[in-house]
Amino acid sequence: MIASWNGLAPDPAPERKRGPRDTIAKLAAQLDLPVNALGPENRPPTTVWHCSVRAAPEDRILSDTEWAAIAQRILRATGIAPEGDTKACRWVAVRHNADHIHIVATLVRQDGRTPKNGRDFTRAQCEARKIEVDYGLRRVRPGDGTAAKRPTQAEQHRAKRLGHPTTAREQLRTKVRLAVAASSSEEQFFLALEEFGVLVKPRRLPSGDIGGYSVTLPGETAWFSGSTLASDLSLPKIRQRFASIEPGAGTGDQAAAWQRAARTTEAVPHTLRASDDQVGQAHIAALGELLDITAALSPLPYRPQLRAATEVFERANRSRIKPHHRKASTLHRVTRELLYTGGTKDGEVLALVLFVIAAAVIAAAEWHAQRGHQQQAEAAWQASTHLAAAYQQAAAQPLADLAHRTPDTRALTRCQHTVRTVLPNHAESITADPVWPALATVLADAEQAGHDIGEALDQAAQPHDLAGANSPAQKLLWSVRARSRETATGQRTTAARTKPTRARASATPAVAPALVTGPATNDPTRRR
Predict the structure, then answer these.
(1) What is this structure's pTM?
(2) Domain residues of the chain, as ranges?
(3) Of the candidates 97, 98, 80, which has an alpha carbon nearest to the alpha carbon of residue 89?
(4) Least crowded by CB within 10 Å, which of 137, 380, 469, 528?
């Protein structure tokens, strides 16, 4: 024990000869004295307040005196033990390890009244931000109250005891979010949850309508409502998102679906810069759905980095700004089109999609930072790091193949001249980039396919901020490539539609087939 309400409370630690249990009983009796002085009917529902305060691993080791002062500041800030109040609640601060303390207080003052400790968590967090500055500790980015609720210690201990890498709450949040991304209606959403191995319990209103839902996993006893998993996973919020999605079935053309997703995502950075806040927040939420689906459909080697990106980007999906989901309907729609075509085996297309998603996530980080959403911005930056790693892994072979086909000297000179003419301010950095041979190949291929490469370069540069790009050549390469491939795919699709085909009845499946799973496998990426 490093501090207490009066400095005289019995400390169990030194009482080894008599045994700590005896001293703990005395300490508990002294702490509970104001509570026990009240009749059972006059006691508050909760009589014990607990708070742990931990320093970051890289912080210096604080002394007992410093930790005691920190405990007193937290208690003053929350209203549990105001400075100079001799009738305040009784409390103790215990140092369990070098890097943290636990504060325990009884929620009945010594004069029999209850403390004015409303919004204690928020007030403690505000004081903690000040303590970080005063003691030179790592400064935690302040939140805005939209973060998902963290698992309790009991949930963490249960997951560890069962050998699970994450708690049931975290697993359910991931599955519910994926079910939202995989659905276009409330009926599809509940069916998708069942397909993902989630037990669902709808909450019925007196009218018989569904007003909410709770979920759990097989073998678990705790049920979680959607709003306790995350604020944007409540049924009303999910319904608002579904209302903005235009109904549509899959095209069956895998290459076209992935290229449309790439082209739509490529426009997200410009949308974030040019649109109002509600439209920007809607596109970031839709971007999170696209990231979820891409991670689920990606080949196995890329999933660890992509799933790590989805986990941290989840924090960037929400802010206090109310999203205007209908303005992001195109991105919602192309995301769901991917579900009906499944994952792509084309390494070049996958690299293209990962590149534009990574660029959009960086734009989302900048968008949040400009609005003071520090936690969301940090989460988006972390996600971009995982996406960059996945992109480098996916793009290595396609870029090597393109560079291996570098055009002849005449064509290369013509490409260089076109770059200098169309993009004079960036020509030197583009042609000096290690990716330039691959970009030259892409330009030569576009020219051979009948495109004006000057016009192609100009169109490719418009959605991007080349001045702030680490590699303008890569941005241009994938933009030009996407437009060329989209044109070629469109021509093949048109030609295919002109061929006579036998009529065949079909129905839109309730859940996108690319993510349908059996309850036993519990793997949202298995096809059947």
Answers:
(1) 0.77
(2) 3-134, 153-243, 297-331+341-497
(3) 80
(4) 528
